[in-house]
Amino acid sequence: MKINKHKRGGYYTTITIDGKKRFIYGSTPEEVDAKYTELKYKHIRGHDINQNPTMEEYMIQWYNAYKKGEGAIKTQKMYQNCINNHINPVFGHKKLKDIKSSEIQSFLKNIKGSKSLVHKVRITLNQIFKAAIADKLIDFNPVINTKIIVQDKPKRECLSPVQRELMLHILEKERIYPLVYTLLYTGMRMGEALALTWKDVDLEKRIIKVNKALEFKDAKPLLKAPKTKNGYRDIPISEKLYSFLEKYKETIKNSIYVFPSPEGSMMTYTQITRLYKKAKKKIDKLFEENEEMQKYKFDFTFRLLRHTFCTGLFDAGVDELSAADIMGHDVVVMRSIYTHIQESRKAQTAVKIESLYEEKNEKSKSKKANLE
Q1: Coil, helix or strand at residue 175
Q2: How far apart are CA 43 and CA 24, in angstroms?
Q3: Are 227 and 204 spatial neighbours (Cβ–Cβ below 8 Å)?
Q4: Rounded Cα gap, residues 190 and 213, in angstroms
Q5: Of 95, 306, 26, 337, which Cα lies nearest the Cα of 193?
Q6: Residue 355: how many other CB atoms lie within 10 Å
């Protein structure tokens, strides 16, 4: 290897690998020598040193190879969002090999959004750089040294008995009511309920068989398998739900689906969104117009119904294993949810204890005042 002085300053040499000549530059002969040695070492280890894609070029290749057409549509869109709206505007123009850990750490800190979003972006970056290592394009994953962003613990709210009855009363005449009632008494995910056919509902054995789910692509419904093996499950039908479904079934004559569109087919994204927004608007309006009802105010979501059912299982003394089976959860996940509910119950108990003697003291003062 011959190291030459460059006419514009510094030094350079050349190396030919796989028939391609490359120039190596440095401010000192020692730097050039180190770079030359590193390139030879990487070539011996099988690295494709003639490839030096930008982050944008490699992300497109990575997404098409590993994510496009794989898994749930919602998950694919999540990766698209992370790449197009967050990673590419910052790193897209940079060479993959030149991106440093400190740059990624600074980038993660400056993302405007929830901790959940930052976590998803970091996961995406980590997968991209791990694939680049497997492709022999880089030696080191710069995401490893970045701070792990801890997701916000989801605030799992549930309806109180009063809120539950209030919600059912408000929505009783709405077309979404059968779906809401069923979700409240089964804990199913919205997509699982919309995929139900009457063949999945065994009223004789009082079991609902969950074996598929609905997802939407361009607002159109598509059936898919449950996300995990735990998603396949049998949900017991309670006495209340049995009475409701038995009567409700008589009103559904033109469809195999339990919760069909007006045409009898699966609901589209537009249709279910319209029903949901109408229901939410009706509930919110009650609280806006009645100040005395503010103490019962809640944010209506399908997830709220699922967690209300899960909390009901806990309060009824259903064990973690059985609850996990009904909810379609892993036992570890179910345990964390039960722990959360338990902690919530302790906090409520503490508040009650705090006010225990205050109430008695007020009564005592009242009696004393009457005696005087």
Answers
A1: coil
A2: 15
A3: no
A4: 8
A5: 306
A6: 9
